[in-house]
User: Fold this.
Amino acid sequence: MADERLVVGFCCNECAYAAADLAGSTHRKHPANVLIVRIPCSGTVDPAWILYALAKGADAVFVAGCRKGECHYVDGNLKAEERVEFLKQLLDAIGVEPDRVEMFFMAASEPHKFVAAAEEMSSRLNRLPPLDRKPVLRVPKKKENFAESLRSIAKMVKEVRLVPVPGFEIPLFSEECIGCGACAEACPEGALRFEDSKDLRIIYLSASKCVGCGKCVDVCKENKVEALKLGGMTVKQLLEEWSKGPEMKLVRCELCGRPFATSKEIERANSQKICPDCKEKLSARAISMGRVRG
Assistant:
């Protein structure tokens, strides 16, 4: 039965919630399985809230805001619409029906539009199967909690690059990357790391830790490399704890044979193929033999 399954509606205080309140005071009925969550502005709705609601028991979620061009906070409703579209794409990529989320626009003086939105979302449950869920544990950080909720309801994974929305952007590497690792050192969330394995340097990214702050992009520009930009993540990257980024071959030291830097690093520094340890030893030897004077 549809009335046994929950619909959560995030309603902005200025218009949608006022319309719902007016619907009640004018004795307009809406389905009893629609739970209203009052929020300051539809633009404050985070995609993580919607996904968490689905993971914890709701079978459908909608966001209701002011009419387009009439948002009390300029463009909050347009931001909310962008996030709902992002979630629709994401749900489709994990095998969940995109119709489970929706965006509605209404004025405070339009209680009939709120009733219509509530009835529409409730009626969709007659067409949609119950949402299968695995247990989800709430974790402190928003993006990690988002990933946990996603794993809870995912049926499959299509390798789709999602449209970028604030807070859900990640660094994208170009061929200009020299593998210096400055981006990993600059990341305050620990979302980037690089490892030297045999003759390869591999950069790893944790999309669930990345907050899209852009500090990695800034430090890359400061180093005059400009190999990074922020863009949309793939679903696979969001679900994986760490995903592989660029792989670069390491150059071996001409003296000790140890791999120590990428060829692009050496080329940019206009340096010999000698590792820092061997350079230090050569300098110490030159000083001890009196070849270096103060």
Q: What stands out?
A: The radius of gyration is 26 Å.
